Amino acid sequence: IAGRTVLVTGGAGFIGSHLVEALAETNDVRVLDDLSTGRAENLHRDATLVRGDLCDPDTLDEAMAGVDLVFHEAANASVARSVEDPIASHQVNTAGTLGVFERARVADARVVLASSTAIYGDPTEVPVTEDEPTTPQSPYGVEKLSGDHYARLYHDLYGLETVALRYFNVYGPRQAGGEYSGVITTFLEQACAGQDITVEGDGSQIRDFVHVSDIVRANLLAATTDEVGEAYNIGTGRSVSILELAELIRDLSGSRSEIVHVDERPGDIHASRADISKAKASLGFEPTVTLREGLGGLVRQP
Ligand code: NAD
């Protein structure tokens, strides 16, 4: 896409900053971010920053003025944080997201929403299609499900062009580590420091890890598709167990770390893998980065 006035909320964060990078050369890009988990050094030099809270009406008005396309990435992206403080998480993920849709309705701007696999809870079967029942197991999942519904509703009720992308487990450069974020970053940090790699539970949980560059491609396809008012799973359609992931990361990084087991996280999801046939058929989405390639890139340049 080119020549558009685009807002990327959360554009100083992990996924948002990669999206901005892909858009900045050919579009007028604005970023709305309060730098709560995002970082100033992630900001693109050609993007304009509106620094502030998405829940503040004046800040949101300023960010949305004159925009014709919105990628809504800003959120409390941490399940753990939503469990600790559901009200704060609701504020940004549910009320904040509704605020974005409402401004977009006034401006008639397309919204591509970062939805999540968390809306499915612990799926009854894998791979998970978009028709799987939604039984979220965390406040975060409930909040993301409400955003996903608002995307559909704003299309059906107001004719707004919306697309919800249900990301599976995203990884790549600039992802934060620690207890609030991605297991891949945590394992890599542990492996590179020669510390024990801590697998929660027996490690038989399976996940569909999708590289951030594929997430960016899915967003660009969603920005132009005619198939709006729809939600799409965005993953690879492949999965790996957490124990296999720990071993792969240890091998690729040449580490001598031990793999140890620690307590399982309450409410942890056992199996998650995307059925991506809908995104393939309607958006022309194909994942391009294998887990081994993606991890190899991170080991060389974390
Ligand atoms: P991130 O924490 O790196 O990015 C979120 C960004 O939003 C940060 O820059 C943060 O500063 C900003 N932000 C948070 N609250 C804000 C507020 N009130 N006002 C303005 N800015 C605010 O997380 P991420 O992994 O890049 O996630 C991006 C989106 O993708 C989120 O909506 C998340 O729920 C969704 N998602 C991520 C994954 C994943 O595996 N990383 C999976 C599914 C869905």
User: How many domain units?
Assistant: 2
The class by helix and strand makeup works out as alpha/beta
> The biggest beta sheet, please?
7 strands, parallel
CATH class of the largest domain: Alpha Beta
CATH superfamily of the largest domain: NAD(P)-binding Rossmann-like Domain
Description:
This protein has 302 residues and is α/β, with parallel strands linked by helices. The chain folds into 2 domains: 5-170 and 210-234, Rossmann fold, CATH 3.40.50; 175-207 and 238-273 and 289-300, UDP-galactose 4-epimerase, domain 1. The protein is built from 10 helices and 13 strands. It has helices at residues 14-23, 57-64, 79-84, 86-107, 139-158, 183-192, 212-224, 242-252, 277-283, 291-300, and strands at residues 5-9, 28-33, 48-51, 69-72, 110-116, 162-167, 169-171, 197-200, 206-207, 209-211, 230-234, 240-241, 259-262. The strands form 4 sheets. It has a 7-stranded parallel β-sheet with strand order 3-2-1-4-5-6-11, with helices on both faces. It has a two-stranded parallel sheet with strand order 7-10. α1 (14-23) packs across α7 (212-224), α2 (57-64) crosses α4 and α4 runs parallel beside α5. It is globular, with a radius of gyration of 18 Å. The protein starts with a strand and ends with a helix. Bound molecules: nicotinamide-adenine-dinucleotide.
Topology readout:
Blueprint: E1 5-9, H1 14-23, E2 28-33, E3 48-51, H2 57-64, E4 69-72, H3 79-84, H4 86-107, E5 110-116, H5 139-158, E6 162-167, E7 169-171, H6 183-192, E8 197-200, E9 206-207, E10 209-211, H7 212-224, E11 230-234, E12 240-241, H8 242-252, E13 259-262, H9 277-283, H10 291-300
Parallel strand pairs: 1-2, 1-4, 2-3, 4-5, 5-6, 6-11, 7-10, 8-13
Antiparallel strand pairs: 9-12
Helix pairs in contact: 1-7, 2-4, 4-5, 6-8
Residues 10, 12-16, 32-38, 53-55, 73-77, 92, 96, 114, 116, 167, 169-170 line the site of nicotinamide-adenine-dinucleotide.
